[in-house]
Protein: Fe2OG dioxygenase domain-containing protein
Amino acid sequence: MISRVPLLSASQCDELVSQLSPLPWASGLAPGKLYRQKVKGNEEIAFQMGQQTAPADALMRQITQAIMESSFIRTRMFPKSLVNPRFNRYREGGFYGKHADSAFLGNGQQQVRSDYSLTLFLNDPDDYEGGELELAFASGEVMKLKEPKGTLLFYPSGVMHQVLPVERGERIAFVGWVESHIQNPQHRDVLSEITKLCDYMMDDPELALTEHHTRALNVKHNLFRLWWKN
Ligand SMILES: O=C(O)CCC(=O)C(=O)O
Ligand SMILES: [Fe+2]
Structure:
């Protein structure tokens, strides 16, 4: 299952892109990992903790904060942490071939499980041809996605995917990975639904804090007790 969240306005995206464009972009190929040439043909600015890419770090922090604070995301994905934020740029010919994201990301103490992969589109589909994010689900379903700027797309990290070659223009995106407090996706859906139910009841003066509502709240809290992992 994928989710789309409008996260940034068009003008916020334009501003971001104008700040990012002049920064030094590195080849997406990590040194010593030339085997990745087979799949990776893009450029990136990764989070460097205050080295020469510090301006990009500040932008990545702002985006990460907006994602972690979004109520849509908090009540559906129960995010614990977002790791390996980076900006990806695909110029003409740029691509990222079919691959599987690693189950564990981050470094040393901060190793986290990737439950969701995310792409925040920073420029519009009209700005480039090709460059679709293609998701190939285990069911056989294939989705080709190109979202308007400012839209954040979440997809399960276990889905094979690729970015098809850009044939004209360039595609700029922010990407990152989220570990959820709730490991099982079905549990996440149940918790999201019961949270919605309790919220609806709270907003209805006839139902708020009735016996029905209180029992629904009890079930909700007990399910969180069962499934929440810090
Ligand atoms: O650029 C994108 O939208 C996805 C990039 C990607 O799949 C990755 O960095 O693992
Ligand atoms: Fe990926």
